[in-house]
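In the current project phase, the collection of sequences with tokenised folds has grown. A sample record is quoted in full directly below:
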Amino acid sequence: MFSQGVHGEVKQGPSYWGLINPEWSLCYKGRRQSPIDIDPGRLLYDPNLRALHIDKHRVGGNITNTGHSVILKIDNVPLAADEEDSGSDGVDKQNYDPSQSSPDFESDGMARNMQQHRSALAAGVNREEDPFRGALPVHKPVNITGGPLTYSYQVEEIHLHYGTRESIGSEHTINGRAFPAEGLLPNTDSYITYEGSITMPACFETVTWIVMNKPIYITRRQLIGLRQLMQGGAQAPKAPLGNNFRPPHPTHYRPVRTNINFKESKERQSGRHLDELLKNTMWKVFN
């Protein structure tokens, strides 16, 4: 994936992204690159961060195998009149990395087995003229608001690395029915956010990352299926998916914010411990 021949020698992987193509120079020179190692000791509590919200519409779509991931194309969702006039326009994608090594972020030096990615365009951006993504079809599906996001964003596609042995271009429906879009988020209001980049070429530094402080669980069998993803076409149907995960990059003094109030949590824990201590002491005195 993303390999390129240079002077007869094949150079591939994230280490060469910024060297083999001048248009990908940010991958090598950028100072706001992702992923990063999230150090809990350096998190900054921001009381102005709002809760993240995703509309509770039921959505359906088709699944397409692109060769290195599986894309869920969400069907159009009817909107209320005020939403149609809002000018909101965006894209949300969910990527799953089944690599056995590092995913696209680390927390205190430890990595998860998998990860989902969501990227979006701000409200009012015309995707047909977007310089970073080129021509894209315009849809108006589920809104995502809140958190560190200034504008409204909308779900259009979900990219999943999900195991399938069929060739590139095959399409499937999701059990032929809709599913709740809010189920794509873990059941928590706590998150961490920072400004970074997309984790594939051309590494544009245009992403506001929101890392939920709770994982979504899958079974071991599902994880094995993800790692056995086939990316080949008709000529090479069993060409394997490469583990070209991107290693963590320096933060370069970027603030990493959170809505988790550690001080308040410690005070609550201390208060609870004091209450229990008083109850135990009183019980000993009067009994």
